[in-house]
Each structure stands twice: as C-alpha cells, then as structure tokens.
Design brief:
mainly alpha; MetI-like fold; 0% strand
Length: 296
C-alpha cells in the first residue's frame, strides 16, 4: 500500500536532504559543469590572452593523445588486479576479526591503521621500504640467504607498478574490512544454527549463507573500490611520477600535468569530462551486472 507523506513530513525530508544536496552541488555538480564548459575553450591557467571558444578541438586532440590512452590502460590494469584482491582480502580479514578471539581488538586496530594514515605518509614510508637498501630488499636477502639480487623497485619498469599495487592493497583493505564486518554482524545467527542442525560444514555455511547475505555489501565494496582504484594519483605522484618509461602513468596524473604543469586548463577539462563519463559507465555496468546476479 502506497504511503503518502504529509506536507510537514515532506518539508522535514527536504530539510534533511538539503545540506547534502548543497555540498554535492557545490563540490561535484557545479565543478563538472564548469569543466564541461571550459573543455570547449583554450583556457589557460595564467595567460595574457583572452579565452576563446574552440569547439571540439580539445576532444579531438585527446583522442589522438597516446599518453592519455597509456594512462587509461594503466588505470584499468590497476583496477582489474587491485579490486578483486583487495575485496577478497578484506572479506577474509573481516571474518577473522568477527570471531570472538582473544586480542581481536588489536587485530582490528592493526588492520584498520593503514586506512586512517594518509596516502602521502604511506607512500613516503613505502618509498623508503622499496629502496635498494630498504626493508624489503634486506628481508628478501635474509630469507634467501643472500641469493636475492637487489632491485630498485620504483625505478624498474617491470617492478614499479606491481610494487604500487601491493602498497595500495595493504593501505586500502582495512576500509573494506570494516564495511564487510558491519555486514557480517547483521547476519542473523539463527541461520548458522539452522545450518549446523542440518549438518552443513563451514564451507557450505560460507557459500550458502554468508555470501548471499553479503550481496549488497559486496556490491557497495566493489563499486566504491573500483572508483577509488580508477582515481589512482597520490601514490603515483609521490613514488614514481608516472615513470619509469610511463609504466605507472595514469589519467589523473595526465590531467594534473596538463592542467597545472602545462597550464592547459581547457584540455585538462576535456580529460576530466571524458574520464568522468568512463568511470560513470563502468559503475553503471557493475551495478547492472551485480543486480542481475542477485536476481538469479
């Protein structure tokens, strides 16, 4: 039966929505509309010349820009590897800390600590760890009894991107862990008790109870983690600046270099619009696929 809100309740709902809507408009909708408008101009960050309308020139240039497609490829590779690994790791960590074990609060703190540490600090620390004389090379030397050949991870084209992926997985898994933990604690215990009476083992409980009950949580985690992965910038800028040989170059770094280093605001705006539409399309496709799986 449909429930009609009274005028008073409608005003109350609008009052609660208004602050969030204002912030969303101010920091997302308005900047995107401004970027869309600037993408049709030759706007520069600092210039003595007047801004001129140049039509689709920035977009035509963008689709001939090899660096943009290099960055886009790296973004997709990063998301395809990091998102599933981070999601599975976060779910495993959540299941561990959800158990009533001694010292579980210590584990929760340890797992979540990297998340509350800013990416800038984490990137600087891991840069030292990846140094040829850093912790990781020394550790590998120790466990291989001196047979490990020292690697300068961040200056090696083969190692740089995997090294950043490893650090990003470690830093971000704690956030997804908390979301999964909240989902696990919402699963009724009676379902597991009934499964135990029916003779189900731990694997069958996980497959037939835990995963189905976590579908909405998993959907949120996958979509939000994908968006964060595609926004890859901070660790790249600090640790490699897109190198070596563009092996870690990303779209956001290209946007930054175009807009600030080269001061081509109009062209950077075109990158923003195209990349936003790509991320939006990926999010919608993910949502549709996951929704279809829930309905099966």
């Amino acid at each position: 039966m449909a429930y009609a809100l009274s005028k008073k309740k409608k005003r109350a709902v609008l009052l609660f929505i208004l602050p969030g809507l204002c912030l969303l408009s101010m920091f997302m909708i308005l900047p995107f509309l401004m970027s869309f408008g600037l993408s049709f101009t030759n706007q520069r960050l600092l210039s003595r010349y007047a801004t001129e309308f140049i039509g689709w020139s920035n977009y035509e240039r963008l689709f001939r820009d090899d660096l943009f497609f290099t960055g886009l490829k790296n973004n997709f590779v990063f998301a395809l590897i990091v998102v599933p690994i981070q999601t599975v790791l976060a779910l495993g960590m959540a299941m561990v800390v959800n158990k009533h074990l001694k010292g579980v609060k210590i584990f929760r703190t340890a797992y979540f600590m990297p998340t509350v540490t800013t990416m800038v600090v984490v990137s600087v620390v891991w840069t030292f760890m990846y140094n040829p004389q850093g912790l990781i090379n020394n550790f590998m030397q120790a466990i291989t009894f001196g047979n490990w050949e020292t690697v300068d991870f961040l200056k090696n084209s083969q190692w740089a991107f995997p090294a950043i992926m490893l650090m990003s997985i470690w830093q971000g898994a704690g956030f997804q862990m908390l979301i999964f933990l909240a989902g696990l604690q919402e699963i009724p215990e009676i379902l597991y008790e009934a499964a135990t009476i029916d003779g189900a083992n731990k694997w069958r409980k996980f497959w037939n109870i835990t995963l189905p009950q976590l579908r909405n949580t998993t959907t949120f985690v996958l979509i939000s983690t994908t968006i964060l992965a595609l926004r890859l910038f901070d660790q790249i800028k600090i640790m490699t600046n897109g190198g070596p040989n563009d092996s870690t170059y990303t779209v956001i770094l290209h946007l930054y270099n175009s807009g600030f280093s080269k001061q081509r605001v109009g062209y950077a705006s075109a990158i923003t619009v195209v990349f936003f539409l790509i991320v939006l399309a990926i999010s919608i496709v993910q949502r549709l696929i996951l929704r279809e799986e829930r309905e099966v």
